[in-house]
Write a structure and sequence with these properties.
about 5% strand; three-stranded antiparallel β-sheet; mainly alpha; about 75% helix
């Protein structure tokens, strides 16, 4: 917001989006206005910007550009229409960069936390080829598909994780409060307690005495594991390999990873990005360190003249169906189309795997909970049943 005097000395005020005070004063000076006060408008913090916010922005921007709305006006509409103040500020800042002559791709590159190299490379390709609206539309579809896959994986993992967490809390309450109460009652029985009851009481005594070590150990272990997973390449490789080899979740994670890999490469190749350059972004977009390493090997072989199919086969992480479709795509000159179809197949398989996984896990979890919690309850009631028989 600014305040100044016009040519006749009248006080005037206004609000302008700009990157610097010098640019604002220069622009107003050409209009005959002498600026006396400039105040930067502050934005509320707002919620954290999430991937779905970027996907929605991409779809809105693509739709408005296809409808003929100028780029700067489209940014204004998106920024004002967002309910998240952090999103509005981000897009306002990007609009200011574009207004000063920065290309859209370069403006996005200033915010790598929200716009990865794949996003920026596709926008740059669209600007160079004059098909920015088409590339944004393709990029929006890609973002939406990736969000859908991640959402399905999270939904598959959320239910068992939540149930196991609740089960742990229930067992902890039983061990800390319920079993000690039964122990006081049993102390007056004057008879030997059954072996299962003695085992549960011993476990409860250990839990009561060292509960802070148990909770602290579990919490600390999870925290340090997550930190090591984020920062250590060796831990990432180990955990990602472990995820792929899990007996129930492994196939789902593998199919989702391959689907993301194929969808990313198909989207970039269809946008005209050279294959070797496209592979730079593909490995990271797959979301698994095993496939990141494999993609780097594929990129090295392709850069020396090896065909994509042979390089993928040498990496030994892709199923035969993917290799065959990639081979057909290379031979027919429609690699992007064949990779896209392969991605569609694996996305459907992820859908089916998640549905079957949910139906399989529910009875298994119920059985486990019944055995653990039911076993504890039965062990504590055995002395009462035994007393009843004696009476």
């Amino acid at each position: 917001m600014w305040e100044g005097r016009d040519r006749v000395g009248k006080t005037v005020r206004g609000e302008v989006r700009t990157r610097s005070q010098a640019l604002l004063k220069s622009s107003l000076r050409r209009q005959g206005i002498v600026v006396t006060k400039v105040k930067k408008r502050s934005y509320p913090r707002g919620r954290r910007i999430q991937e779905k916010d970027i996907a929605m922005f991409t779809r809105q921007l693509a739709t408005m550009m296809k409808a003929g709305v100028p780029l700067l006006q489209a940014f204004d509409i998106v920024a004002r229409g967002s309910s998240n103040a952090a999103v509005s500020k981000l897009f306002t800042d990007i609009r200011g960069d574009v207004e000063t002559g920065t290309s859209l791709a370069q403006a996005f590159r200033k915010y790598p936390l929200y716009f990865d190299s794949l996003f920026c490379n596709l926008v740059n390709a669209g600007e160079q080829a004059g098909i920015l609206d088409d590339l944004l539309d393709r990029l929006a579809s890609y973002k939406e598909k990736m969000l859908a896959i991640k959402g399905k994986i999270k939904s598959a993992l959320f239910y068992p994780t939540a149930v196991l967490a609740v089960a742990f809390i229930v067992v902890a309450v039983i061990m800390l409060f319920v079993v000690p109460a039964f122990k006081e009652v049993f102390s007056n029985f004057g008879a030997d307690l059954p072996a299962p009851t003695l085992m549960v009481i011993a476990a409860s005594d250990f839990f009561v005495e060292y509960w802070y070590l148990i909770f602290g150990g579990i919490g600390g272990s999870l925290y340090f594991l997550m930190q090591a997973w984020k920062r250590s390449t060796k831990v990432q490789m180990f955990m990602d390999r472990l995820l792929l080899k899990l007996p129930i979740f492994g196939p789902v994670v593998e199919k989702a990873t391959i689907a993301r890999w194929l969808r990313t490469l198909s989207t970039m190749f269809a946008a005209g990005v050279p294959l070797v350059e496209a592979l730079d972004s593909v490995g990271g977009a797959a979301g698994n360190h095993v496939y990141l390493v494999a993609t780097k090997k594929v990129q090295q072989e392709v850069s020396t003249g090896t065909s994509l199919t042979v390089a993928m086969q040498n990496s030994q992480v892709f199923p035969n169906m993917v290799l065959q479709m990639a081979s057909i795509g290379e031979e027919s000159g429609s690699l992007d189309s064949m990779l896209s179809k392969a991605a569609d197949i694996f996305e459907r398989e992820v859908d089916e795997a998640v549905e079957s996984l949910s139906s399989l896990l529910e009875p298994m979890i119920m059985v486990v909970l019944g055995v653990v919690i039911g076993g504890l309850v039965v062990a504590m009631y055995l002395p009462i049943f035994k007393l009843g028989q004696v009476v």
